[in-house]
Amino acid sequence: MSGKLTPGRLMLMAYVYLVLIFVLAPIVVILPMAFSEPDYLTFPPEGFTFKWFGAFFGNARWMDASVFSLKIAVLTSIVTVVVGTMATYALMRGAGRLGTLFQGLLIAPIVVPHIALAVALYLFFRQTGLSGTVTGYVMAHAIIAMPFVVFTVAAALSSVDATLEDAAMSCGASRFDAFRLVTLPLILPNVLSGALFAFILSFDEPVISFFLAGIRDKTLPRMMFDNIEQNLTPVIPAIAVLLTGVSILVLVCAAVLRRMAQSRSIPAEEG
Amino acid sequence: MSMAGFLQPDGRNLSKAGILLLMAPFFLLIGFAFLYPLLSLLSISVTEPQTGLQNYERILDTPVYGKVLLRTLWIALLVSILSLFLAFPVAMAMVSSSGAMAVFITACILLPFWSSVLVRTAAWAVLLQRNGIVNDLLQAIGIIDAPVRLLYTQGAVVVAMTHVLMPFMVLPIYGALRNIPPDYGRAAAICGAGPLRSFFEVTLPLAMPGVLGGFILVFLTALGYFITPALLGSPQEMMIATLISQQLREFLDWPFAAALVGVLTLFVTAITLLFSRVFRFDRMLGGQV
């Protein structure tokens, strides 16, 4: 397959452009609606206003939900990265049969549909009083995000030479210091991009948010779900504009981290 | 960055106690907030209101519920097939392009990963509404005379779910295609195979693990999908996830909802185990970030 412009390749590219239009169109269509005057969603947008951003930032319920979701996402990202990195490190340092169990349990939340986990937690959290609490959401989101963090961290750990830790320890460093001062700096870009990924997964997570929400403590996705289901106001496109901005920012951060990871993996390969 | 031996243990080993200590938080978390809740939910499905399989019998004996199961399977299959036909050429274009073009296609495929499912579902609600763009477009071309109902139909669910899940098909196929040495295509051409024959006899068979992996990933995700059917689907044509939600939240019939979760979970687990050899999550998802 070369880049030459044969008729076959021309047809392929035409088809691919159509698919890309299908992929992008809904996103491209909804964003300008954030600046449209009328109370309903219409395309092309009519007039120009920032009032829907005002409606979002000026409404206590939207703000409470956003802060609540941010809090959950930050904590999820911290919990997932700490718990995930500890377990992944153990896995890569000779976990044996426990490692097999770990990998099985790690994959399970990807296989089991989110609706199943959501219903199970809905029931369990009602009995234990964890419904609608930050703790409850963070545990649920950490379970969903864990595999992605572990895969990312494991990819970095497998390219770090373990003899570096040996060297540190034979110079008198403890195992923890050897990890903290030698290995951790080398895998840090992947750890951080795992944290970013966990943050996004939690912040966007709609299904568990839907079932675990109490009457008062709603996450941002749950508030959005209710708005879309009931009347679909232009606040949703306004949020879409904000979320897209954040996503692009995060993507740029992730690209920078990846570049850092690449530049750091070179000494390990030489060693 | 070598992906070989991805999750294999290597390096200087820790003591048994050290490993247990480091893994303990993970096991506690997954035990407390995943295994125990899921197992107790499944046990409710066979112990309440009485011990036995009557909740499962009810699913099979009531035609309405059987229909929901069949519809769910059908929609998931349709979404997977549509995704495959959209995704394969895109993956091919990603492999064969270079420079700015490759970056552009990759960004288009990855951007939806980072944009909210709810936003995309809302976008489809806007596009498909009675006075929406799709209706305008269809009238302009002359396919329809008056606006038709597109929203709250099975078609809306299939289109929006394909839109959301298609990127999950592109990545595994892209991974498989990228690993095919370009020499193979050239060798086929030298041996006299045309582009079509070379595609069907060389490229496609070698890409099969990626195709199968992507297909199963999309199919299984679609089976349990909740948000899109709940917002864009018709209440008369439920999928299993929306039925579970209704039984749980409107009828408060926990044991029956638990049995529906049981059916879904067992089915999904069985398919995963059946295809566990092609279904390598670490390979499919590890390169995503």
UniProtKB/TrEMBL annotation, chain A:
InterPro entries: MetI-like, MetI-like_sf. It holds the Pfam family BPD_transp_1. It is found in: Cell inner membrane; Cell membrane. Gene3D superfamilies: MetI-like. Residues 66-254 form the ABC transmembrane type-1 domain. One of its GO terms (biological process) is transmembrane transport. It is a multi-pass membrane protein. The chain crosses the membrane at residues 12-35, 72-92, 104-125, 137-157, 178-201, 235-257. CDD domains: TM_PBP2. Keywords: Cell inner membrane, Cell membrane, Membrane, Transmembrane, Transmembrane helix, Transport. Coiled coil: none annotated. GO terms for cellular component: plasma membrane. PANTHER family: INNER MEMBRANE ABC TRANSPORTER PERMEASE PROTEIN YDCV. Belongs to the binding-protein-dependent transport system permease family. This is ABC transporter permease.
